[in-house]
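Hi R.,

Here's the chain you asked about this morning:
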Amino acid sequence: MNLSFMLRLLPVLASFFLLSGCLNVTVQPIEVKVHATLDVNVKVDRALDDFFGDLDRKSATIATPPAKS
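And here is the predicted structure, written out as tokens:
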């Protein structure tokens, strides 16, 4: 590079660096929405547990007939 090109480039670079200090950049937060989905099998499994849980609690003790002698 020759000297005349560098002397013309120097004020451009100096003004760029001086003006770049005056810039103000603001960043807005990004809103992310998360949707959770329940699997249908989990809902059915819970419903069956509730239904058969009542039956299991009723039959916790088995009534046996008295032994014949």
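One quick note: The chain has a mean pLDDT of 76.

Cheers,
M.
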